[in-house]
Amino acid sequence: MIKVIVTGTSSGIGEAIALRLLHLPNAELIGVSRTQTIEHHRYTHKFIDLSDLEQVQLFQFPACENNDEIILINNSGVIGDIAPVGKKSDRAIIETFNINTIAPALLMNAFVNYYQNHTGLLKIINISSGAGRHPVASWADYCASKAAIDMFSEVIYEEQSGPNLKIISLAPGIVDTAMQTDIREADSALFPLSAHFKQLKHTGQLSSSSEVAKQIVDLITGQISWPDVISDVRDF
Ligand SMILES: NC(=O)c1ccc[n+]([C@@H]2O[C@H](COP(=O)([O-])OP(=O)(O)OC[C@H]3O[C@@H](n4cnc5c(N)ncnc54)[C@H](OP(=O)(O)O)[C@@H]3O)[C@@H](O)[C@H]2O)c1
To answer: For domain 2-175+208-235, which CATH number applies: 3.60.10.10, 3.40.50.720, 2.60.40.1180, 3.65.10.10?
Structure first.
């Protein structure tokens, strides 16, 4: 079996990945988010608020057979308060780092520890962002939280990568999800790139979450060969 733990299955990219994975007859999923949209006999939902780190630490990875392939997909993410530093709320900064960086780091730590004697394949897919690699004004906490996930992934790659564990920190491109709606709805007085993101939507330049999910599932099934730890779906 392929056992997949994926965060943020209630919307956007995470929901599309989960739905596509459920087409594989040998996949069993645990989805994590505050709300549930998917019902399936091979899908279990865990209601966890990833901004609450005590809830994250209570998460139990499932017991698996030694020949199972086990995959952790850290996908949940928030854009945070779209405003320049000095005008952001402290609460939003803390939540953005908790959801985008600290919760995935805790889950990776627990995953590597819990399955340390597992003989089947282990994979970690972190959904990062181009914004972790290029600064975007008014997204300081978002950019920094994704840059941190890239580096956390690179360190795991140095420490653990081998035939048993594969890891990738993957930028998904600009995808037509609720997050992009939040970006377009940001106060243009606080966000210099507001018009640019509206233009991308109006000129049809966003990819769909199902296209991106297909690429990620092709990566999981080996139809796309496993790329460098720091990757972007636009280079596949
Ligand atoms: N869309 C883009 O253009 C784009 C570009 C680059 C990177 N990304 C990355 O892609 C990933 C998915 O984003 P998306 O665009 O699909 O966004 P989305 O449609 O807004 O979905 C976000 C998901 O994260 C979950 N989430 C948010 N806060 C959470 C919390 N406190 N606890 C648990 N789960 C939480 C949401 O579930 P609940 O609200 O039910 O909890 C939802 O399922 C994110 O990491 C994002 O940074 C997106």
So the answer is: 3.40.50.720
Q: Dig out the tokens for 56 from the structure.
A: 């994250």
pTM over 0.85: yes
Distance 106 CA to ligand 1 centre (A): 18
pLDDT given at position 108: 98
Q: Contact, 164 vs 122, CB < 8 A?
A: yes
Phi, psi of 223 (to 5 degrees): -75, -25
Residues 216, 17: contact at Cβ < 8 Å? yes
Asked whether residue 161 carries a pLDDT value surpassing 80, the answer given is no
Domain positions in the chain are 2-175+208-235
**Ligand 1 center from residue 112 Cα (angstroms):** 23
Three-class DSSP category at 169? strand
* Pairing of the two strands 27-33 and 69-74: unpaired
Residue 163, pLDDT score = 74
CB pairs under 8 A, 24+ apart, for 221-229? 221/24, 226/166, 226/168, 227/168, 228/168, 229/153, 229/154, 229/157, 229/161, 229/167, 229/168, 229/169
User: 117: CA distance to ligand 1 center in Å?
Assistant: 31
Atom of ligand 1 nearest to the CA of 8: 43
Exposure string of 11-41, with b = 16+ CB inside 10 Å and e = fewer, is: bbbbbbbbbbbbebeebbbbbbbeeeebeee
